[in-house]
Amino acid sequence: MHMARRLRMLGTNSKDGECPTLYEDVETGEILVQGYTVTDPEVLAQMANPLKGESLVVVDRALLVNFAPRS
After folding, report:
1. What pTM was computed for the model?
2. Is 18 helix (H, G, I), strand (E, B) or coil?
3. If you average pLDDT over every residue of the chain, what do you get?
């Protein structure tokens, strides 16, 4: 049985609740990113070995600098 993820918001550079936002799964420590999904086929074709269900999202570099865990 798959348990629902419990997320903790790490931070956002957004105003008015818009994306992007970083989250941490409190159980696994995995980092999740909220952002606009890339839909351009030419950009997606450049992904290295994408697995089923994988895609790209746009993330402001400052979001990672300001809120990504350091360890």
Report:
1. 0.78
2. coil
3. 89
